[in-house]
Amino acid sequence: MSSKSKWILVVVSVALSCAWLWLQKKSVAPTQTVCITKQSITAFIVEKGRIQSDSERTITAKSVGIVKEILVREGDWVNAGRPLVVMDTSLSLQKLKEAQSNQQITGLEQTKASENVRLQQLLFVSGAASKADVDNAEHQFKLAKTNHEISLAKTEMARTEFNHQQYIADKRLQIAKISVEEGSVVSPETVLMQLIDPTHLKVDIRVKEFDAPSIKLGQIAWITAANSRQRLSGKVARIQPILEKIGDTYSMKVTICISSQNINLKPGSQVDVRIITGESAHVWALPLSAVLYENGGYKVKVNTKSGKPYFKSIEVGLQDINFIEVTHGLSPNDQVQIL
Questions:
Q1: Is the pLDDT of residue 275 over 60?
Q2: What are the tens digits of pLDDT across the range 194-233?
Q3: Which residue has the higher pLDDT, 112 or 9?
Q4: Which of 174, 182, 192 has the alpha carbon at shortest distance from 61?
Q5: Is residue 276 scored above 80 in pLDDT?
């Protein structure tokens, strides 16, 4: 190889080495630092729930019967006192008549048993009946009296069933769902229909154990649906007093009552609920990316003039999705590394 070729190789090697060193230096990003700055922080938690009516009624059958007539339709508004369902009373009337007939029979049997007791007592005094005869007569009277009391109770129950020939609204509500048809045979506790007040709505959510201490009655909440741009406001109205284990986690039920507004969301709609747990204006804060949470405490990496950064513990307050409030441990001149 000629000396000229050797020189060319040397020059190329040096150039490649310089280029490699330059690229290496270029690839090492400089450490970013920030200082605490004044920020306004709004802390909140977000959970999912479904819209429900805060005023609901479920109409159930009080006795066995046949639905004779349904006087309303789904979507109707009804006022207090409005008849909703009329039942066919033929079955309950027959049952009432049978109960009344049985009541008369047991009443006569009780009267006869009472007269027999008096007779056996007189015969015993005259020596014509034994003490066992008197005891047996008294025992038969007790049985007859018990049977008559049972028949009285059955008659009263039958009369109550007969009187439930129609069901009436007790307040102004909207018919949400009718669960039976005319001609349906129903038994006690069969759901006939459900009524709601769609102008008074609520959302029940489950708040995790970690967030539970920050929830307070009266806190503001914002409710939004994925398929709607409408945002509703509400307040924390009820807080379950205990944490329940559901699956592998503990949580508590929190009820948000929605303020009376022009509400387009329907009961059953899934929504996101954002509860405002705290607000601070113009407080010293750092970006969340500059703060490390470790072993139950918060720390930051602070630069020094010597070039050797060190970790420093800090005390914090509220935080949102971007910033965390620093209440103690830093001065405005401290340079904190982004981690």
A1: yes
A2: 999 888 889 999 999 999 999 999 999 999 887 767 788 8
A3: 112
A4: 192
A5: yes
Residue 259 has which token pair? 């303020």
Of 60, 63, 71, nearest in space to 182 by CA: 71
What count of residues does the chain have? Answer: 339
pTM of the model: 0.60
Write the DSSP assignment of 259-290 as a string of letters.
Answer: PSS---PPTT-EEEEEEEEEEEEEEEEEEGGG
Helix-, strand-, coil-residue percentages of the chain, each rounded to 5: 30, 40, 30
217: exposed, middle or buried (Cβ count in 10 Å: 0-12, 13-18, 19+): exposed
Rounded Cα–Cα distance for residues 62 and 253 (Å): 32
Q: What pLDDT is attached to residue 28?
A: 47
Handedness of CA 301, 303, 309, 314 (dihedral sign): negative
CA atoms of 92 and 162, how far apart (whole Å): 5
Decide: 137 and 182 in contact? Cβ < 8 Å: no
Give CA–CA dist 203/224, Å, rounded.
Answer: 11
| CA pair distance 48, 235, nearest whole angstrom | 15
